[in-house]
Structure formats: structure tokens, C-alpha cells
Amino acid sequence: MEIPVTGFVFQSDDSDPLHSHQLFITSWDGRPLHVHQFQGTTSFDMGHRHHYAGTTEPAPSGVPHTHRYFTFTSVDDGHRHEISGVTGPAITLPTGGHYHEFRGTTTINGVNPHSHHYSGQTSPE
Question: Do 69 and 11 belong to one domain?
Fold first, then answer.
């Protein structure tokens, strides 16, 4: 089974012998792809909190979908945590477009090992 994919490849200027190419997919099976921004602040634990921001992985528009996400928190109290997961399903906005909710627990890190909780909503499509 073949799935039509469109996009483009970004090539470096070849000044680095270990260069790589980036592939940007713009549609999958005839549907345009989109991403969302997300940001927030973790729970206050062990005397501090962390900030985070990132962009979800692309997903097709116009169909039920979720997005995977991954980022690192800010460095606070000498350490940072990883945040990753999958958003909830698309929630339609009355004015058009949609957003997603996300929530989870960071990785464990710090001199006194601990994690933080986080939750929020992505930017609208």
C-alpha cells in the first residue's frame, strides 16, 4: 500500500563533513500536517518549579488525531527534567480550529531525586 507524502528536504551548505539533511513533511495521504506550541510551569516540589516550552510532532489536519510531544524543562535548583507524552484528542473551538490538552509527570532528577507534575493546553491550530 502506498501513501502519498509531500514535503521538502533542507540541505546544509556542506561546510560540515558530518552534515545532515532535514526532511519536512507537509502532507500525509493528501491531508496537510500541522503542529501546536505548548508551554507551562510544573508543580512546585522540593522547593522549586520548572518552566517548559516546545512544539508537538506533526499530525494530519481534518481527522481525529493526537500529537506526541517532548521537551526539557528549564534548569532550576541545578537540574532539569524531560517532559514527553501524547496529547489528548483534538477539542474543537467554536471559532474554528482546535487545541489539545496534555498532562503528565516529568522524569526523576535532582540531588534529591524527584519529579514534577505538569498539565496544560496546546496553542490552537
Answer: no
